[in-house]
Amino acid sequence: KAIRFSALDYLLKPIDVDDLIQALRKVKERLHHKGPAYQYQSVLNNVQHKSGKIDRLAVPSAEGIDFLNIDEIVYCEADGSYTIIYFVNALKKLICRNLKDFENILAESGFFRVHHSFLINIRHIQKYIKGEGGYVIMTGNYHIDISRRRKEEFLKLLDRI
User: Fold this and answer.
1) DSSP class of residue 49?
2) How many angstroms separate the CA atoms of 92 and 136, rounded?
3) What average pLDDT does the chain have?
4) Phi and psi of 74, rounded to 5°?
């Protein structure tokens, strides 16, 4: 679980003082070399085509910067101040950026905010199911609710596809 969330280190109970000191040194070193400004810049540092649409997305990770292929992202889900990105290969990645940041970056690349908690890649919509707000079935059989507030705009988007 620690690896999945890009932890720098982990401590086992009972906590050993030397292990705690070593973990704190890692945190201090990490903050010294890669502070919030660096991480925010790495998210915005995207590889772009001449059209202005991004092809890959640079996101901070524990090891450095990961470059994610936009076409392989099925959807993004808000998790507090973090975002979970779901990929076509059923993998997911927790990123320390909020969903609004990704909405701003990916809006021109075929992503649409269908709900307070979800940003979807419209190229991965398999089916739209009607209802009060309705929901979409995405690549990988993910079911994502459409908020009533976003439904009208979403249906207009579907008409343009």
Assistant:
1) -
2) 19
3) 81
4) -85, -50
Both 27 and 38 in one domain: the answer is: no
121 contacts 87 by C-beta, under 8 angstroms: no
Report the pLDDT averaged over residues 17-25: 82
68 and 29 in a common domain: no
Instruction: Return phi, psi of residue 91, to 5°.
Output: -80, 160
Q: Which residue has the tokens 């992503």?
A: 111
Residues paired with residue 83 on neighbouring β-strands, in sequence order: 78, 95
State the SS3 of 53-87.
CEEEEEEECCCCEEEEEHHHEEEEEEECCEEEEEE
pLDDT band at 18 (very low <50, low <70, confident <90, very high): confident
| Radius of gyration from C-alpha coordinates of the chain | 18
**C-alpha of 150 from chain center:** 20
- Examine residue 117 and state whether it is found in any structural domain, yes or no: yes
Which domain, by its residues, includes 1? 1-33
Residue pair 114/122 in contact by the 8 Å Cβ criterion: no
Rounded CA separation 15/88 (Å): 39
Distance CA 26, CA 30 (A): 6
Structure tokens at 119: 């940003």
Report which residue type is found at 23.
A
